[in-house]
């Protein structure tokens, strides 16, 4: 029987990033998600948090005993160290950690780290191998660099919001922080490329580091496919098209007779023919004008109407069975409840079973991508605030008396 979860790994492998040290300076989503992925694949991630409550995401959305369930995922495998970054001694400790790190990930507004003496140029002067991933709303340059930029702003400025929703209604947002997450993934890619470059130019301490400058709006903009050349060459501004994929036909959301929503992607030429035969529209399957996508686009409404008319005669299960038998890409639109019982999710072991400190069991999403030889693993869930402060300070050479003094002075 296929298991529906995987337990924490007992493998001795520590992942492909074992030996890489990452310093995380930042809060909420983009920076922490970037470092989370590095932690999942073996990097030692030291997360700096304010002693006064820590990362705000600890209190976002659904809570257990005052801590966000999201936190346990977003901060898994990280070490939490509290530092008052407004205090010179806190900045001094952060600087020591930064100079030991292979990668520094930060998502403050441009200029904040410079104010604390922790900017890229200052650290690079002390360690030319410094790699700093900087995530911000608008990047480290340009007339808007000093403005606050959240994921919602990046999604709007980068083009995603304009094309999302139905043409007769205002733009909508996706119900997750997709702009921040896209920026985080660009940060991971940039960090990996910078590490590769550092290693081929001399390695840690000798190689050439660099700054990875990720703007949220640019990460979203990078997903916009052919938006720019379509406008520049043809004067076309892509508009909202609801559940359809514009200019690629048919690929849309339809409603079955029992009120369920189903996504059907029949836009490949051979797939389109199979789809039409499956829904009893042999006439459209053999229509030479519809044999290619460029011929189907002008008749989008007609094609969608034919598919919708057939869907109304089917239950969701009947429609899925018929279209899968015809080898047509199709899916029910999943809720999380659907995911937790789906054979594909279970076969791919997309859930991990863990437990909170009080023994309460909890499922977490498994780690992706899946590497055959050095897979990622969850070594521990998001830590308590400052859980690793003493451990990390001792590794820097601070003794118990010094750590106690730092606590008394509210530096940590």
From TrEMBL:
Pfam families registered for this protein in UniProt: CoA_transf_3 (PF02515)
InterPro entries per record: CoA-transferase_III_domain (IPR050483), CoA-Trfase_fam_III (IPR003673), CoA-Trfase_III_dom3_sf (IPR044855), CoA-Trfase_III_dom_1_sf (IPR023606)
MF terms (GO), sorted A to Z: CoA-transferase activity
UniProt keyword terms in alphabetical order: Transferase
Entry annotated with the keyword Transferase: yes
Keyword Disulfide bond: no
PANTHER family per the UniProt record, alphabetical: SUCCINATE--HYDROXYMETHYLGLUTARATE COA-TRANSFERASE
Descriptive protein name: CoA transferase
Source organism per UniProt: Noviherbaspirillum galbum
